[in-house]
């Protein structure tokens, strides 16, 4: 963690020296030498940091030395960031004015004004650098006393434990079902399965992976099923020769003196040929699959089918590298409350009489609950309390953090130290930052990544953006079991939210003690905050009852805070905010979501380090122009501010801004005036854009420079577009990273100027969108241009004037279709399937036929559609079948196949619909049919109704 911070400072110092050489920066006399000295000192410190970080576990003096180094590194980062920001802002202000005679005087004044201020700034920076150099000198002197080593040295406390297959089955609790699952995998004899099956047991340290592997390994059925059983403790590093020698020793029954890998593998092959074996590789860490390939290939050659390898690891990526299929990876669950209590109590109450047990059982159950299902914690605390009988001793354990308990520090958290030091240094600081959240806090992946970005933890490279690096870091921490309780996207299976286990949270707090804290405001708030160090850097304040508690004034004294996250609604936030901003000048993150804020004070423009401002869900009408001075801003969130009317006119000055949110999905009439957005060329995420059409603000053409936009974008037309060429100026086709587009046409008044048909035709949508939503379309022609052929998801709703649906059956990739609230549609016919000729039924045949096989003259409409839903179609009466052949213009008979992949059909709120078409009723792929608030269909398809025989073959039918 310190290593990453020192690296950032070294980068900044190096940049200043380069700028000075190139005459972009003028240094005060003597400062160049000060910077060179700082650089030299930091480089000397960096060389020994790995050794220092490990030694801090046993030596409190080393830990104190590291804390001092952190403080001076943070302070240096602030100074250099202030300087770099001032230089960059001056250059951008000069450059933003066009070189016209009318602007020369203005540009000169701005430039001269900055030069005047720069002199004072350079002198102030020079003084601070000299002061910091003196502090660093003292730290270097202390460093030399510790005799640190310049290379990473493993210490005993971090040694990986050696495991064996020995187990006392009676002591194991709660792994019966897991054992059954693994046994089933091991004993299944599939002729189509691999010759060598690799099963991985994955989970955080202390969850019981090795225990489960021992249970299986020692089971009598397993023992008789496999001719050879081998147990090898791998740990770190992954050494092929050591592992091969251990396998050979187990097979031969004695140690072998061979040291050549080739000879070892040949000998292993000869001993397992024509045999069925079980090999347990316990505690595997290495993610490099090439180190494992030779050994795996040797084991595969010649062994009988049914041979298996069981791998235990903390890292799902290791399981993938070892060759386990997704079905052969078992992620171990935490124990239940009862299982954890059973494991804890059998140790804690051993040899205690009934009276002692009665006095301590209530406290014991709460201690067991504190373990949150982690077997190692239950065993360690149970063993600790086995020889303690006084209530005060048990209450001390109950009320302590895990890292405050000596037994936990040496046994439980030791497992996490190993996992922590296996992380790259930049990933360590991302993990430790999570200590700012309270226990059991649910945090979203994308929100966490933005917080990491604001603190400078994610260093963008030429080939990878910060967001990509952040997502890789998040996924790596999740794979290594630092996170749990995953919430996953149903589509791609990615994790979008999670929590931390209490023990992992305590470990993170142990790493960040005095630097990172969260506090619940439920009473004596001031005294709670007074107990925290004035050198604290990150804080989260949680208000449990916003009607009762005011914002604590003592937060103002934590002047070095880089993160302030407020959860809840303090009663005095509006009054406290100006002073809060005035005092916390080091803030990188200010998160005040839903705090009842009515006005953002203008002094927010003084927070020159601010990268992340979340003011969402407040009562703000507008933001002060001073916010446009926040040159470093990466994320600005004012979404769900229902009173918000406009963004600052000079928002285009926020040239580094990557994420801008001001939408409100709950209010379709919500409109925010935005001017100057064309200057935000760094934007990666824009949730909504509101088109006024007035020619003064919020023109659709302002999107032209925003070609880095990613993910989804909603465009709302709340005014009239007078010229379709203005739509083309948006250059939507250049936004190749957008994957979803929502178009809302609404609140239009002057209908004759331009209709929605022309807008949609002129839009030229992004080339890679797979999801499209079009709402409140007021055109008269069901336009659907051919450039939408990659769509997989389409939703159309509230098309007020359309009587016939577009020919969506021609979309070759469409998988999900939702039609909602089409108030003028009375019939869904062949045109919807894309079978009509041009102009028939009022359709426009822009889209090419979905799929056609020329050899058989067969047209397939909706070839990939899996889910089809109709909602609130109150005038819809007829759904035409589209049966039979179709004659093309050359009189060649063409047969049709309709919706061959349909899995789900939902009809909701269609009171006049009389029947379903034959191609639905006769579908052999339909698995689910749901009919709600559609009385004619409900009567038709209820059990015993006229339509029931035609639909009864569908497995799941729901009629309301």
Automatic annotation (TrEMBL):
Classification via CDD domains: RX-CC_like
Alphabetic keyword roster: ATP-binding, Leucine-rich repeat, Nucleotide-binding, Plant defense, Repeat
Domain (Disease resistance N-terminal): residue spans on this chain: 6-95
InterPro entries reported in the protein's UniProt record: Apaf_helical, Leu-rich_rpt_typical-subtyp, LRR_dom_sf, LRR_R13L1-DRL21, NB-ARC, P-loop_NTPase, RX-like_CC, Rx_N
Domain Disease resistance protein winged helix: 436-508
Domain NB-ARC: 178-350
Molecular function terms from GO: ADP binding; ATP binding
Record-level GO BP terms: defense response to other organism
Top-level lineage group: Eukaryota
Gene3D superfamilies reported for this sequence: 1.20.5.4130, Helical domain of apoptotic protease-activating factors, P-loop containing nucleotide triphosphate hydrolases, Ribonuclease Inhibitor, Winged helix-like DNA-binding domain superfamily/Winged helix DNA-binding domain
Positions of the R13L1/DRL21-like LRR repeat region domain: 700-822
SMART domains xrefs: LRR_TYP
One Pfam family cited in the UniProt record for this chain: WHD_DRP
Protein name per Swiss-Prot or TrEMBL: Disease resistance protein RGA3
Originating species: Populus trichocarpa (Western balsam poplar)
Phylogenetic lineage: Eukaryota, Viridiplantae, Streptophyta, Embryophyta, Tracheophyta
